[in-house]
Amino acid sequence: MKVAVASGKGGTGKTTVAVSLALALGGSVPIQFLDCDVEEPNGHLFLKPVYTREEEVTLLVPEIDENKCNYCGTCAKICNFNAIAVAGRKVLVFPELCHGCGACSRFCPEGAIREVPFRIGVVASGRAGSIEMVEGRLDIGKPLAPPVIKAVKKHAQPDKDVIIDAPPGTSCPVVAAINGSDFCLLVTEPTPFGLYDLKLAVEVTRELGIPCGVIINRSTSTDGDVEKYCYQEGIPVVLKIPFDQRYAACYAQGHPLVLKFPEWIPAFKELWQRIVGMVKKGV
Amino acid sequence: MKIAVTAQGPSLEASVDPRFGRCSYFVIAGPDGEIIEAIPNDGVAAGGGAGISAAQLLINKGIEVLLTGQVGPNAMRVLQSAGIKIYQTAVSTVKAALEELKEGKATPLSGATVGPHFGWGRGGRQF
Ligand code: SF4
Ligand code: SF4
């Protein structure tokens, strides 16, 4: 089973939840932890894996053969991403803007465009104890996260339980990360901002047709609005982690919740069983 | 000689728009400061590379001189490759900018004045 852990905004404790879930289950079943938050992967801070393999993620970007080019400007016109400009007798390529769609080379009337690999990130893989860990890292200044996320997800094995730490927000990288999951856990805070972003995240999962459940982190007596919304929308609130100074200190020191407070292990195991049940029933 | 001024509106009285790639309009003028045309900048809505697309537009229009506020490094590369002369202006209207140029008081620009994605607003780019 593949479960994505996402949140409409950063700082809700999404990674903490993903890591705790992996650790709680890790002892008993084979778990893969895929860190798809490629712009700021931080699962490793908690899980402290040993990476043994690293592969580059590249995109095919155009290279112009100035001997064949007649500066017709077709490539610049066809590119949707402004990654090529034809300035007089010069063709300028901006690989950091290129999406690797191949349109320019296909439509160049002179066959002057060759496609060459351009590195945008890496995928590291290894182990953290019994957990198999894969982490994507987008190179700094490269805007295109989805190809790196997809490269991470290629490591998912069908016979294992997979936990995906998705990037925060609701944009393309989030879609790339949670797409194809059996279930999506949305981590939120019981604040007006938290609720606003939660609603956006729920929209994304609905568009993708992925069932979701909500985890309220730093839960207090003010959860009312989030709970009311979830109730109205028929979304189960599957776990509440109360606000507690000791937990905050534990995260700040880079300790996973379940290691410092093992009394939480059963809660995360139950959570998993509940998700399995919901997915089987097709809720 | 065709001169382009980045502007917030399509006229000589319009304010100069300091953002090159994300300006609202390009007011194109002749050597004596007369308007030839005003082109809305489609690049305002572009996902990325707005400066590059704006530079390409000016090249296609045969512009030789550009009056603007801030130019990012990518746009700068394209404009310079095409041999377009760039002047930075701080005056308020398109008309004043053209007069400044005519009087030889405009400040030539040879390097990028801002990093890429200037004019994006808070939050940066999202794909
Ligand atoms: S389409 Fe081909 S020939 Fe035309 S400018 Fe681009 S590279 Fe040159
Ligand atoms: S491959 Fe696609 S995105 Fe890249 S430069 Fe060519 S047309 Fe533009």
How many β-strand runs of chain A?
A: 11
Looking at this structure, what is the CATH superfamily of chain B?
A: Dinitrogenase iron-molybdenum cofactor biosynthesis domain
Side by side, the strands of the main sheet of chain A go: 3-6-7-2-8-1-9-10-11
What coarse outline of chain B follows from CA principal-axis ratios? globular
Helix content of chain A: 25-40%
Tell me the number of helical segments of chain B per DSSP (H or I, 4 or more residues long). Answer: 3
Q: What is the end-to-end distance of chain A?
A: 15 Å
What do the pLDDT scores of chain A average to?
93
Write the CATH architecture name of chain B. 2-Layer Sandwich
- Give me the secondary-structure category of chain B: alpha/beta
* Number of domains as seen in the coordinates of chain B: 1
Rounded to the nearest angstrom, the radius of gyration of chain B is 13 Å
Largest interface: A-B, 21 and 22 residues
| N to C succession of SSEs of chain A | EHEHEHEEHEEHEHEHEHEHHH
- Mean pLDDT figure of chain B: 87
The share of residues in extended strands of chain A comes to 25-35%
Provide the CATH top-level class of chain B. Alpha Beta
CATH superfamily of the largest domain in chain A: P-loop containing nucleotide triphosphate hydrolases
> What is the element string of chain B, with H for helices and E for strands?
EEEHEHEHE
Please mark out the parts of chain B with pLDDT under 50 across 5 or more consecutive residues, or reply none. Answer: 121-127
Write down the oligomeric state.
Answer: heterodimer
Structure report:
- The complex is a heterodimer of chains A (283) and B (127).
- Chain A has 283 residues and is α/β, with parallel strands linked by helices.
- Chain A has 2 domains: 2-57 and 121-281, P-loop containing nucleotide triphosphate hydrolases (Rossmann fold, 3-Layer(aba) Sandwich); 66-111, Alpha-Beta Plaits, CATH 3.30.70.20.
- Chain A has helices at 14-26, 43-47, 74-78, 103-107, 146-153, 172-178, 192-208, 224-233, 245-252, 257-260, 265-281; strands at residues 2-6, 31-35, 50-64, 84-86, 91-93, 113-128, 131-138, 161-165, 183-188, 212-219, 237-242.
- In chain A, the strands form 2 sheets. Chain A has a 9-stranded mixed sheet with strand order 3-6-7-2-8-1-9-10-11, with helices on both faces.
- Chain A is elongated.
- Chain B is α/β, with parallel strands linked by helices and 127 residues long.
- Chain B has one domain (3-117): 2-Layer Sandwich (Nucleotidyltransferase, domain 5), CATH 3.30.420.130.
- Chain B is 23% helix and 20% strand.
- Chain B has helices at residues 50-60, 73-81, 94-102; strands at 3-7, 25-29, 35-40, 65-68, 85-88, 107-108.
- A 6-stranded mixed sheet of chain B has the order 3-2-1-4-5-6, with helices on one face.
- In chain B, α1 runs parallel beside α2 (73-81).
- Chain B is globular and about 35 Å long.
- In chain B, 45% of the residues are buried.
- At the A-B interface, loops of A face α1 and α2 of B.
- The structure holds iron/sulfur cluster (SF4) (2 copies).
- One iron/sulfur cluster (SF4) binds next to β3 and α4 of chain A.
